[in-house]
Amino acid sequence: MKLPALLLVARIAQGAIPGLMPLPMKVEEVAGRLVIDSGFTVASTGATNARLDAAMKRLSDRISRETGIPLHKGTNRPALVVECKTNSPQTPELGEDESYRLDITARQATLSAATTTGALRGLETFAQLVVPGADGFEAPGVHIEDKPRFAWRGLMLDVSRHWMPVETVKRNLDAMAAVKLNVFHWHLSDDQGFRVESKRHPRLQELGSDGNFYTQNQIRDVVAYAADRGIRVIPELDMPGHMTAWFVGYPELASAPGPYAIERKWGVFAPALDPTRPEAYTFLEDVIGEMAALFPDRYFHIGGDELDDAQWKASPSIQAFERQHGMKSSAELQAWFNARVQAILKKHGKTLVGWDEILSPELSSDAVIQSWRGPDSLAEASRRGYRGILSFGYYLDHMLPAKTYYLNDPPAGLGGEACMWTEYASSESVDSRIWPAMAAIAERFWSPREVRDIDSMYRRMARMSRELEWLGLKHREDRVERLSGNEPNRRLYVLAGVSDATGIEVRRDARHYTSLVPLNRFVDAVAPESENARALEAMAARRNGTDIEALRVSFEQWSMNDTGNRFPEELTPLSKNLSATGAIGLEALRYLESGKAPPAGWIETQRRTLDGFEKPTAEVVLAAVRPVRILLEALNQ
Amino acid sequence: MKLPALLLVARIAQGAIPGLMPLPMKVEEVAGRLVIDSGFTVASTGATNARLDAAMKRLSDRISRETGIPLHKGTNRPALVVECKTNSPQTPELGEDESYRLDITARQATLSAATTTGALRGLETFAQLVVPGADGFEAPGVHIEDKPRFAWRGLMLDVSRHWMPVETVKRNLDAMAAVKLNVFHWHLSDDQGFRVESKRHPRLQELGSDGNFYTQNQIRDVVAYAADRGIRVIPELDMPGHMTAWFVGYPELASAPGPYAIERKWGVFAPALDPTRPEAYTFLEDVIGEMAALFPDRYFHIGGDELDDAQWKASPSIQAFERQHGMKSSAELQAWFNARVQAILKKHGKTLVGWDEILSPELSSDAVIQSWRGPDSLAEASRRGYRGILSFGYYLDHMLPAKTYYLNDPPAGLGGEACMWTEYASSESVDSRIWPAMAAIAERFWSPREVRDIDSMYRRMARMSRELEWLGLKHREDRVERLSGNEPNRRLYVLAGVSDATGIEVRRDARHYTSLVPLNRFVDAVAPESENARALEAMAARRNGTDIEALRVSFEQWSMNDTGNRFPEELTPLSKNLSATGAIGLEALRYLESGKAPPAGWIETQRRTLDGFEKPTAEVVLAAVRPVRILLEALNQ
Q1: Mutation target vs B (from A553, A558, A570; most B CBs, 10 A cutoff)
Q2: In CATH, which superfamily holds the domain spanning B152-463?
Q3: Cβ separation of B568 and A132 shorter than 8 Å?
Q4: What is the mean pLDDT of chain B?
Q5: Do A485 and B18 touch (CB under 8 A)?
Q6: B482 to A131: CB separation less than 8 angstroms, yes or no
Q7: Cβ–Cβ contact A165 with B under 8 A
């Protein structure tokens, strides 16, 4: 039987099929289960190449690691055979055939794909299917047909505002591959840092990065690492705004005299490139030329967002230039600049990508528009004949619930890209800001549009979250006991487990942050969306006997968690609120069990109390409130 | 004030001084606290060398990692100044001066040491003193004078029975350095594998290791890594028994005709070197010569334990040899063999170390005896003029409570060595079998004999356990959800958190284990001594109001933990026992709170039930029983 999405979700919930993410286009159950033991091997019969070989080796290593079974050289027939029709180009390209078929029987598994890239995607599906069985590990009998809904499925990472070392980038590429993402958009320069080595103009990184930049060798290494995993790498050099870090070494590029220093604050800043000076284009020609050689992808991102035109307005020469060319606004000057940069890119065989501000008649129609401001600008771009990718609604630094991102559906177009801006994330915390929510977004980009069951998504995302840990992601790393100097502190875990870290909207107003403020507080060690609270919400909605008992244990734990705590001072209100929430939860359980209605106004009073508790404190939100709210609603019915 | 051990322990318990491990010889509190911020730097003023520089860099990196504060190049005076009188030899040696003094004031910290090695030890103490303060991180004002009680403080790791990759060895060296251990005894060959490359006789590793061996370059790298951390590396090539892996490639060395295969089972096996053939000594001369060049330490371990003399007894030529030389037993032949090996070692400038079976009049008196059989043999060795190190009572693979190891005091002599034999530990689980108990043993080897307060040890060991995690140790890694195929499974954590994994004594009888059986079950993911159970024991002994409430929450959680579980089948009895233990605990709390005596025989009945629950099941012991037992005792008074 071919399972439609809803039936498939039901079979996954029953455990008949492991919780795949992203969900394949078609899944059929087949009798039998393939045993995974120490003789497990993968072999390829069709087109083969170093990328496929490496991917097969990674699969074996991963299965060995995840199952704890050391793999010995199998002498039997291979457990998994990969039949690949043609070799994909060595460097992944937009629009490749990524489809695959996977057949697993008790005897053998067969993965068929038209291209290497399709095979890479299928290997990831196979890895997700390995589960413990009655005697060791196994993969269920299935027939899967799969291909992506969108061709451009990306993650943008800002490495300028907080530095992200190569190992951070690499482990995120591993995670991206695991959920079939195929574009890594590398935001390499901004006011706070220029992060890539230029040999032609070395003061860019020497003075613009505090020593935190990627050498050209490192870039080549990361690009190859991504290509191995079927991921394209798109560099972004943001211009003509967001360029302060360039001006530290080359103040003459700016529209106002220097000197300039690396920006330490967050926001939009005045410094902007002077687009009227011919020398600027010589310089850009050099840098773009170097980067074009370094990044083999045909697409190149020039940013173009959030230009503050104060310097342009204040510059007599720029104003004179505008008048002389009949330009009526800074926007027209920026459009003219973009067109010139586009011409430079073309010379190097590159297609321009930019944020939606770049949309203007001067732009030739092969440009790709990345919309961060909303679906309207994407529709407008499409109307004018540009291809578009949606990022609005996928801003990971807002740290919204995964379901919010998940239900945001890209319009017809190339696809979408989630964005991780890093004002409030360091290399230590960034994994926990991207994952596991990014896995849900990856499903939105890959799976059929009608796959949108929230409960199923959360269930599978929780499993994927653990899968990613085996791949080396650090999003579930425990760091809260740092706050008690490595002294055991179970109460701190209880509090952290039912708190949601807030995103940029709350944090930018909470205190004076700069790039020099360490991100080492409670909020930085807490996940954006408490998995624990979500489990309790499900129990509160179901309310069978076991659920009630489990809720009671949690509420009791909360209600006593504040007593004798050794928490950092800023957590005092949060901790008191948790204990009060526990007490309300216990009282609500008593009413529900006794069947006796609470006194008039009681529910309303508790609700208002919980409203207060849901306001951010210490830059976190008390997720514990949510299951208790559900009980109050049940009492109200 | 100079704090005697007990007073010091009290000040640590109050949090006035962080919980150092091993405890220094003398600690004085000093007014003020040194702020640790992003300007933190270390500088050296005295003798300096690459090892000290590297150690100072590691300290900075570690402080940055543990505090989450990115360190910028400080422009102020250094926060920590290291004054080192003389450079230690590049390769650490037995008996170096490892003493240091550490003074921390609000203004600056000063570390003074006679040697580089002493400075290395002091840097580790400084790292342990960094704790969160009112505003960021800080180190308390102290004056510390410290030096080790014993000169030989070791860990032996068996890499033959389960293969341990270089990264596993390196992270354990990091942990050893953190607790001031100074000898890494590398058990490189045994029946189950010959793990080091020989260029002269390459079939040793080619046929004797399944491809899992260290290249000579890797050995040099590890030896240098250890030396950097002030750790000596002693290689062990076990002979004339425990040599099956040698005979796979070189059957002619054995006392009976081949062919031989790598041993897959655990135990003591018949194959033994034929010590009567001159060719054996030519071969050993080659291999020892190679290894002597590879391992710079002056000491070289030849094993010598557990010889099964069946092959010798069955060999007419060996029996004839014995008669001809007037030997009355296999023991005399082994003694003669040891003396010849000792002569070979001497030629290469090496001093012989061996297990206590080697003790015989033929052995020249510079040999070092490592006692695994008991203190008596060590006393005997000492009586005969040999230097000794104690390993009896420090067998980590027995997985005893840390306090048992801790209270085992070495007699006068060189010191002690804990032993990690790896029949039941893979590279994945080995960290959790060594740590944190090894930290308690390290304190036994370093700190004054009178430091033996168990509660203080456990409190500080729990803190050290987290410190070690920051250093990359994997002993606290979560792996239990592997058993539910990465599906969230909180009940499994609850069960794992109050279970103790058993050691070799239980496991060897529990099922048929070989080196090919994966160590990926519940027992392999569980720690040898539940930290959680210990915390609950302390609460049960104290029984203040908060304790009672916390115990109740745990008991309720246990009592419902079995309902609707999704556990591997072998855990069914364990899980039921946990729930029953929770129920007994709840009932005991009710009696304690009501002040009403339980009915006659009730306590005795519960005790017997708990006795049954404490028998190993699924190769683990239910640690949850212990706090409940304490409550029963309280009721009985």
Answers
A1: A553
A2: Glycosidases (3.20.20.80)
A3: yes
A4: 95
A5: yes
A6: no
A7: no
CATH class of A5-146: alpha beta
Does domain A152-467 correspond to CATH entry 3.20.20.80?
yes
**Within an 8 Å CB–CB cutoff, is residue B19 touching chain A?**
yes
Cβ-Cβ contacts under 8 Å for A590 (sequence gap 6 or more): none
Asked if B449 and B409 count as a contact pair (C-beta separation under 8 A), the reply is yes
Q: A539 to chain B nearest CA, in Å?
A: 14
Taking the domains of chain B in order of start, what are their residue ranges? 5-146, 152-463, 480-635
* Three-state helix/strand/coil letters over B12-56: HHCCCCCCCCCCCCEEEEEEEEEEECCCCCEEECCCCCHHHHHHH
Which residue of chain A has the CA closest to B467? A486
Question: For chains A and B, what is the number of CB pairs under 8 angstroms?
Answer: 119
CB atoms within 10 A of CB A113: 29
Q: Transcribe B429-443 into DSSP letters.
A: THHHHHTTHHHHHHH
- Give me the residue label for tokens 């006795």: B611
User: Helix, strand, or coil here: B85?
Assistant: strand
Q: How many CB atoms lie within 10 A of CB A73?
A: 9
Whether A264 and chain B come into contact, CB under 8 Å, resolves to no
Is ipTM > 0.90 here? yes
Residues 35-54 of B with CB under 8 A from A: 38
Burial of A512 per CB tally in 10 Å (0-12, 13-18, 19+) = exposed
pTM for the full model?
0.96
Catalytic positions of A, written as ranges:
306
Q: Which residues of B are catalytic?
A: 306
Q: B313 Cβ partners below 8 Å, 6+ apart?
A: B319, B330
Question: H or E segment at B387?
Answer: strand B387-390
pLDDT digits (tens, 9 = 90+) for B391-442: 999 999 999 999 999 999 999 899 999 999 999 999 999 999 999 999 999 9
Cβ within 8 Å of residue A221, ≥6 positions away: A166
User: Which residues in chain B are closer than 8 Å to A520, comparing Cβ atoms?
Assistant: 67-69
